Amino acid sequence: MESTRYDFIIIGAGVAGLTAAQYGARSNLKTLVLENVSSGGQALNIMHLENYPGLYPGIPGSEFIGKMEAQAKDFGAVMQKTQVLSVDKVGPLFTVKTADQTFSSEALLLATGAYPRKLGIPGEDTFAGRGVSYCATCDGPFFRNKRVVVVGGGDSACDEATYLSTLAAEVTLVHRRAQLRAQKAVAERVLRNPKITVRFNTVVKEIRGTQAVESLLLEDTGTGLTSEAAADGVFIFAGSVPRTELVPVLPHDDGGFILTDDRMATPIPGLFCAGDVRSKQFRQVVTAAAEGALAAHSAEKYVRDARSEAYR
Ligand code: NAP
């Protein structure tokens, strides 16, 4: 199968990928973005993006992504909705295969993001979509005036608990430690919310029900005592797992997130990595955007350098 040639291929159209697309296209790289679902990644789940610099008083994540996609396309990036099946490098070129097409490029950006980590407890898979959710923005409206439990102590759990408190009759946030790990302002919003009860040092052992979620079996991590809490829904925000299966050989941290240098470069020449799939301290829309811009800049330099060497 003959391949369609690009200078720069980006896998993943989240914030990092779309930023890289815009920067890549603007620097005159023939740029292709491949994404198997809708553009936006996890930013689509942001009800109200309130901390992106200059975007004040903030906009919905979906609107933000719509603007990013339009900006990347207007600068010349090509967007294609398709699932990438494999990535290889033969000589100076990457080969990217989908079910019916093959693409090649000198530079490649892995911006494949991450997906929600499961708790791995009984009932979690059984009641997925029937009370178990990993996205409050998507499923919150089904729990209007109902009782929901939110699991986790990070920014996602706190933000989503705050959002759910505007819909649900009561929200219980269950966290395995004695304090929240979320940013101070985000955590304080939860602790001050009269509709949210926080149960520290508590884990969910089982999700129970018949047709849908009816209760949770909770365990106090200090005493080991268990109790059953009635709930119509449980929203799980236990961190995320990076999507790295296309290039499994790359160095990664303990969580499986890919290690790069500060130019977003991996040890494979021409292969860059940005966004939630990358190892880092602070996962924000603004850091994903910055990494996308840096990756595109590095890709452009890589392509130009490789070509000038080739013609020497
Ligand atoms: P996170 O910071 O990794 O937090 C995950 C939470 O889940 C932690 O509290 C962790 O507990 C808990 N957890 C993990 N495995 C668990 C298990 N098996 N059972 C029970 N609890 C478990 O993930 P996140 O909240 O999704 O945030 C990810 C990144 O996105 C962060 O960098 C965050 O700052 C960023 N983010 C930012 C915003 C914002 O700026 N508004 C919003 C959302 C996300 P421990 O605390 O004990 O580890």
From TrEMBL:
Catalytic reaction annotation: [thioredoxin]-dithiol + NADP(+) = [thioredoxin]-disulfide + NADPH + H(+)
Broad class of enzyme this protein falls into: oxidoreductase
Cofactors named for this entry: FAD
SUPFAM superfamilies: FAD/NAD(P)-binding domain
Keyword Disulfide bond appears in the UniProt entry: yes
Entry note: cofactor: Binds 1 FAD per subunit.
NADP found in the keyword field: yes
Pfam families linked to this entry: Pyr_redox_2
GO CC list: cytoplasm
InterPro entries: FAD/NAD-bd_sf, FAD/NAD-binding_dom, Ferredoxin-NADP_redctase_2, Pyr_nucl-diS_OxRdtase_2_AS, Thioredox_Rdtase
Residues annotated as domain FAD/NAD(P)-binding: 6-292
Record EC number: 1.8.1.9
UniProt-recorded Gene Ontology molecular function terms: thioredoxin-disulfide reductase (NADPH) activity
Keywords on record: Disulfide bond, FAD, Flavoprotein, NADP, Oxidoreductase, Redox-active center
GO terms under biological process: removal of superoxide radicals
NCBIfam families: TRX_reduct
Family: Belongs to the class-II pyridine nucleotide-disulfide oxidoreductase family.
Assembly behavior: Homodimer.
Protein name: Thioredoxin reductase
Native organism taxonomy: Bacteria, Pseudomonadati, Spirochaetota, Spirochaetia, Spirochaetales
